[in-house]
Predict the structure.
Amino acid sequence: KAGVTQTPRYLIKTRGQQVTLSCSPISGHRSVSWYQQTPGQGLQFLFEYFSETQRNKGNFPGRFSGRQFSNSRSEMNVSTLELGDSALYLCASSLDQDRDNTEAFFGQGTRLTVV
Amino acid sequence: AQSVAQPEDQVNVAEGNPLTVKCTYSVSGNPYLFWYVQYPNRGLQFLLKYITGDNLVKGSYGFEAEFNKSQTSFHLKKPSALVSDSALYFCAVRALHKAAGNKLTFGGGTRVLVKP
């Protein structure tokens, strides 16, 4: 079955602009999580959506937001971009949390460069 | 709060030799533990997990990991490393309580270099 699909793969934006990233989870997965990966901070959790509701949120400023649609696809938005937002943004999909056998499957990521 | 430590930034090993990547964790209650691997410009690939049961967990590509509750460790091992195992390895923990959702906390990663 198809894996996690993230679009676009690469983005270059200017400081102050806003950006929207998209993630299509594995069919049947209702949980979508987003992570930011940078050389300095490593992998950091942004937020998780489950059944169109934000279930968990990491320690990021309000410029980072997300949403999930009824088909489980998710988008994340970053407004007023800063140079420090340059990173690889990874999306992960999982089965329902309540099931024991659940591991996160990751997309290939969106590489965002802010100039 | 949960945390993961990978004490080695890089591990060098000769092809055919055993490979070990270390991981220790801190979490309230029982943990779910995972290992992921990342190749350049790619996302994370799932290797194996510990949920419950046997402390020795077998995963993809000949990797295994040993859960040690008393030492709060979950070290990744491979009996005979291949050059193609050269990559960045991440250990992650997920808490079991409902409020944690599917949130994963990752270690800083360990770069493995397998030399021919």
The first strand of chain A starts at residue 5 and ends at 7. Chain A touches chain B at residues 4, 6, 31, 33, 35, 42-43, 45, 48, 50, 55-56, 58, 90, 92, 94, 97, 100-109, 111 (CB under 8 Å). The radius of gyration of chain A is 14 Å.
